[in-house]
Amino acid sequence: MDIHRCRFIRYPASAINAVAFTHSSLPPVSGQKKHTQKHIQVRLAIGRANGDIEIWNPLQGAWHQELVIHGGKDRSVDGLVWVTEPDEEMADGKVIHGKSRLFSIGYTTTITEWDLEQARAKKHASGQHGEIWCIGVQPPSNKGASAPGSRKLVAGTVDGNLVLYSIEDGDLRFQRTLIRSPTKKTKFVSIAFQSHNVVVVGCSNSTICAYDIRNGTMLRQMTLGTDISGGSKNIIVWAVKCLPNGDIVSGDSTGQVCIWDGKTYTQAQRIQSHSQDVLCLSVSADGSKIVSGGMDRRTAIYEPIAGQAGRWSKVFHRRYHQHDVKAMASFESKGISVVVSGGSDANPVVLPLRGAGKEYHRTLPHLPQNPPLHSAPKARFIVSWWENEIRIWHLLSPAQKLLDDPQAALGLRKNRKLLAQILVKGESHISSAAISEDGTLLVASTATDIKVFQLRLARGEHAEQPQIRKVDMPTSGHAATKVQISPDSRWISWVEEGNKVMIARVHTTESSAGVAYTISRPSKLNRLRRQIPKHLLLGGLGSYDRNITQMAFSPDSKLLAVADLAGFIDTWVLRGPGEGASGAGSRDDEGAASSDSSSDSSDEEYGDVAGERWARNPSAKLLPKLTAAPVVLSFSKTRREDGDYDLLTITAVKTLLVFNPLRGALSEWSRRNTYPKLPAPFRDTRDQVKGVVWQGHRAWIYGVSYLFMLDLSRDLDPEKDSAGQKQGTKRKRGVQESGAGGKMEKHSLAPQRVKAAVGPDGAKWEDVEMADADDQKSISASSGVDDDDDDDDEDIDGGELQRLRDDQGAAAQANGDDAAGAGKQVTKPAAATAAATAAAAAKWWHTYQFRPILGIVPLEGGPGLANGDVSEGRLPPLEVALVERPLTSEDLPERYFAENEWER
């Protein structure tokens, strides 16, 4: 594989301003029905300075970025809160978990509610007050589960007002102003609820105030005094939290964490744990740990002092971030106990909470799960996008030619050319984009519209400058979360409202002015009806997991496949004139009669004069539900002997499956090469898979920090344990982890003390940060997922997939095929030949040389065989552009204060 290592493609890092979990903790399974605990949906929301909101699924430590709701011009997310309504019990005894609603603020006068099912803003509300700087949600009453309408949103403003917003009956509206500050110089900066009716507010005038929200009376005002000599006159209370026993924790601009008695509202303790401002706090569900983060990049953990009630001590601190730590949130349940923090360096960091000091932390990537990168292989174009800007690059010469050039270093710099920059009009940022393989058609989607552009290449003596012309869509108002162009450039498909699949035909007309494109009226492709229990659709996140995240066309453009977060795969086939539409459905995803189902399957309504139409694959219902959300969905580039293309899917828990979509069955290779036979480095890596590039029957799979090659034409060798025995297909119980990094070899995270001379009078003890080499050790730890510890020896691929394998094995034996013999490996002697060793090594290969990888896209035009040609058993040449986007100091904002030399 020839690689163009590209670092000139930009993708600006955006600071993390807010993080929030749907639940702070979940009760233990004991005392609850098992199914109720298992179906509770826990998600992490991350808000960024560019207005993006990311939704992450912890997945017991796998950490999958499921959704990105893109922001817009001059938008910022500076605060996030989840509101979970109380559970309801149905007549049949099943429990409807309370709906989870997500709200955000952005240093404006507006509160926004987000619709995760359609990946867009749902409601906006504002009142006659200043900019909102903090927001909190009223907890349920201690007397029992409160009604949905009895809880409020409470917001603090820059002009010293405390305002109430009503969220009754699924609505969002301004209700009234609760507190008006006598002076507008006082700012309400942070907020936390001590009880159902008592809210604690951190102010900019060195005070912390407790209010009764029923009547707006001030219960107590706590004063921090003034800053140290030479500092600010007023102390800013950047963060406040309340412990389960009612005590109050505050972090301020002096770098101190203060503990306040929740009954007398007096200061019980003051800990100087930071050298600069404390910006965020988090507490464990049982009140046994406090975590703080600040401008000095430190993250500190505190625990109660044994035998001294109400007294705390700092256990340790460490610098996990490269810049200010601005936000953090914690979550605890039976199998996970973590704190997630974020700041100006854009990287979310997962810290173990219950296992603090015994497990490594984990840094999640700042790059998106779905790469903002696409290529036109035949034209050798690379398209990248961020916010409202699209850039089109041209790689002039093949990589092999550059390697043969004696002045290759100079050639690499001259090999790229920026052809065009396109600024998409509107306030919404680009959510997805795609370019046709010949580089003549470009599609970009935002939260409000879909833009289509035609690129005409005007050839000059030394360069090619494209002429860009906008192509009109037949209807306006379409918004898409994902767009795709078929390989033959005749079809454009996209996803509307999160789960609706649309498709439109691209017509070409030739004239004296050249070729022109027109787009036909789009049509909806109906998905299979899925039997989802009603109590699951009505509660939690609703039908959020039916959001489509993966879409792929087959190389001949006659198959289309999509996959959603729930693990369902839908496929359609292109029917020619006179071909039957067997399998076309007439009902939509929720099972109700579709109002436009007749137009979806009608040639006249579709408007295609050639008579081609898309119909549901008759074997689509045979594809099983995946055990986790797919992160890769891709058709192989070569046909099998029966004319079908293999469909590769990789899930968030590293399950790799190959389907034959037209038969609705697992391929023979996938049936023989189950999860335990996959290479251990592939199974054990914690970073999610981002994409795949095909080279004949070889799949080059990449993540943010690795590149793997799997040969899907050869069976993999079974992994062996330390005793030399083959592993079975049953899951092995491992050491329980908290959801961050792996277990430490040495259970110690205390900072080492060294003697450093600081002046002519002698020396003093200073704390030295631990080495960052621990981060590399955590990469190799296992990322297995246990849905429930009570499910002993559950197959890693799920029961439905195992039954599919068993059924296919029985059918193969009935036809006289020796399926077991086909998967059997030849045992080689100890003195194996070099050729045999090399052949065995060619089954899979991996490297960690490139990081962090934004994306990898294929190119064509190299010497030798044409891409896709596998004649005479040879692999076709593969040329790719590998784009790295390392986070450098230039991407980070300037620091407020200079650091001491020894701290660098």
Kindly describe this structure:
The protein has 904 residues and is mainly β. Helices cover 8% and strands 40% of the residues. Strands 40, 41, 42, 43 and 44 form a five-stranded antiparallel beta sheet that branches. Strand 33 (381-386) and strand 34 form a beta hairpin. It is globular. It starts with a strand and ends in a 20-residue tail after the last strand. The C terminus is likely disordered. Residues 579-609, 718-824 are annotated as: Disordered.
Estimate the mean pLDDT confidence: 81
Spans of 5+ residues with little confidence (pLDDT < 50)? 29-35, 145-149, 581-609, 721-725, 728-734, 747-760, 762-840, 863-872, 900-904
* Envelope shape: globular
Q: What is the end-to-end distance?
A: 40 Å
Biased composition (Low complexity): 809-823
GO cellular component, one term: small-subunit processome
GO molecular function: RNA binding
WD repeats: 271-303
Q: What is the gist of this entry?
A:
This protein is mainly beta and 904 residues long. Helix content is 8%, strand content 40%. It is globular.
